[in-house]
Each structure stands twice: as C-alpha cells, then as structure tokens.
Amino acid sequence: MKTAVFSSKRYDREFLERVNEATGAGHTLAFFDTRLNPDTASLACGHDAVCCFVNDRLDRAVLERLAGEGIRLAALRSAGFNHVDLAAARDLGITIARVPAYSPESVAEHTAALILALNRKIHRAYLRVREGNFALDGLLGFNLSGKTVGVIGTGKIGICAARIMRGFGCAILACDPQPSEELDEIGGCYVDLPDLLEQADIVTLHCPLTPETHHLIDAEAIDRMKPDAMLINTSRGAVVDTKALIEGLKGRSLGSVGLDVYEEEGDLFFENLSDTMIQDDVFARLLTFPNVLVTGHQAFFTREAMEAIATTTIRNISSFEETGAALHEVSVEKLA
Ligand code: NAD
After folding, report:
1. For residue 175, which atom of ligand 1 is closest to its CA?
2. pTM, to two decimals
3. I need a surface site. Which of 89, 136, 154, 216 has the fewest CB within 10 A?
4. How far apart are CA 61 and CA 50, in angstroms?
5. How many whole angstroms from 155 Cα to the centroid of ligand 1?
6. Which atom of ligand 1 sits closest to the CA of residue 210?
7. Is 177 in the pocket of ligand 1 (CB under 6 A)?
8. pLDDT tens figures, 164-173
9. Which residue, 219, 305, 255, is CA-closest to 147?
C-alpha cells in the first residue's frame, strides 16, 4: 500500500524499511519528517494510508482533508490514540489501527530509570563530577526497599512497573477501574485513589489519557500526597496539571518529579531545539527545579520496542490491504 509516514525520523525509517523488506510486505513508504496537521495533510495526496505518531494531529479537520485525499487507513505507531478523533474517523470511513502492546518493559524500565536517577540524584552527580566537584551535599537519597509505590493504571505497563518495583522490595498499592489478577500474584493490593496518594512514597502513572484522567493529578491530588513523595509520569502529559505541579514544587509539597511526557510536548519533543529560544514558560520553569528530571518522551525507545512497533505497523497495513480490516483496529464501537 502507498503509505505516507509522518513524523518520521531516521530511526523510524530504518526499522520500518527493514521490516517492510524482510517480511516481503512490499508497501511503498514515503517518509515525511514533518508532523501531520492541517497544513501538511496534503502530503498524503497519492497515498492510500498514513502512518502517524503521538504528536500528529488526527482531529476532524485533518481527517476530512485526509479523506479528501483518498486515505482509508491511519496506522498509528503508538499504543495511545488520544490524539485521534475516533468519531470523525468513523464518519469519514477512515480505519484507525494502532500498536496495542509493543514492549511494556521498555516503558516500565524507563520508569525505574527515572525513579533511580531522581532518588540518587544521578542527573546532578553526573554534572558535578565532570566539574571536579565531588561533594555529596544535596545528593542524599533513600532506600527503595520498604517504600510504598502507588501504581495508577495496572494495564500492561503498570503491571510490569509494579513487578520491577516489587523486585526492589517495595510494597505496591494500585488503583484501576479494571483490576488485574496479576497484581495479586505480584503481592500488590488495590486501594482507592485518595488512599494511594496519601500512602505512597512514589506515585507512578500508567493510565491512558481520557476525559476522566485529564488532570487526574491536580492541586487537590498533590495536596494529598506525602510532602516528600516522588511523582513519575511516563503515560501522557495531560494526566498531570503542570501548573499545579509547579505550585506544588514551589511550596515543597512534593519531593521530586520525573516526567517523560508533558502536556504541551507537541511543540517541543522529538526535535533538536538547542539553537532556539524555548517559548513555553511553564516548561522552562519546570526545568529550573533541581528535583525535577525530564526526558523527551523516550520511554518507548529501545531496539526491541522499535522492532515490535515496525512489525505490528507493517502487519496492520498488510492486513488492511488484504482483508479491508487492520489487525489492531481502534474505533468508537470497539471502545463502547
Ligand atoms: P493498557 O491499556 O494496557 O493499560 C492502561 C490501564 O489504565 C488499564 O488497565 C485501564 O483500566 C487503566 N485506567 C484507565 N483509566 C484509569 C483511571 N482513571 N485510573 C486508573 N487506571 C485507569 O495501556 P499500557 O500499554 O499499559 O499503556 C499505558 C499508557 O502508557 C498508554 O495509554 C500511553 O498513554 C502510555 N505510553 C507511554 C509511552 C512512552 O513512551 N512514554 C509508551 C507507550 C505507552
């Protein structure tokens, strides 16, 4: 199938081309570095499908333009689909496919990396040692063993993160409207959200972004947390109210914060902006705190995950070409 691949970096091209060739799928892939938005949708002209990532816009306006260009499939290279207007896709007859599970370990392990780095101040220690500063003041951490980790969302990634943190000797509390039996096997237990926030030393977010989870962590939630608690978000930026987070950090009602995602990341992440002036003052303020560690949506970025994303994406496109249905479709009807 002729597929226009948006937001594609060198690494996306490498993995997709390799899988396309190795499996003999034979799709014609055109790679565009640019994001999909109303101004770039016309690049899809002459293609049957688009292939998109997390910061591509698939709202009604863009989907209408894509439909006008004859696009019948949007193959997402992500698990999350909060950036897609599913009702508009249904109305316009565009099938949405995604990669439901590519490597929960990749994101869960990055969560652990953020926890360890923040706790032992590795980000500060790295810079100090390079300057010949071997003083330990300000680098005091705590033992993970015996601490309580609160996992919000115990799907594929949340369970994996819970298992890793259990391995460090942590007690696991969790909340999820759809509890998983696996949590019991790990030795964790479900509580309601207020209890989790009040009892956890580390709160880690692994729920999708939905209207219900938008700003789930707001000023009230932060107030409930222990004043020295650590908050980790590797799910979606808007699950956290960033302005409330900044107020919490300023008022010392939070111990530390590790973020791989940010609510306005679309203007920043995945690009080299080192020669430009960051215009987002909220993000810039976030970076001034010594107890905040931000990575640019890289939790998924392992060889294994990229291989799996490329494989499922190519299979979604092939299946749609052969049968008219993608392997992993997401639609309003399927979610109902
Ligand atoms: P999943 O669907 O397997 O699990 C999500 C879980 O969240 C489900 O069990 C669901 O019931 C639960 N949930 C829904 N609403 C909730 C709420 N209000 N409170 C608590 N739990 C709730 O998804 P997954 O594969 O584990 O991925 C989780 C999220 O991680 C994705 O939606 C995506 O946003 C994010 N993600 C981030 C990266 C990254 O690179 N940073 C990569 C992949 C996925």
Report:
1. 20
2. 0.94
3. 136
4. 15
5. 6
6. 15
7. yes
8. 999 999 999 9
9. 255
**The two three-digit tokens of residue 263, written as one number:** 């609510």
* List of domains in the chain: 2-102+302-335 (3.40.50.720), 104-294 (3.40.50.720)
Residue type, position 55, single letter: N
Catalytic, out of 27, 47, 224, 236: 236
247 catalytic residue (yes or no): no
Active-site entry in 47, 265, 321, 328:
265
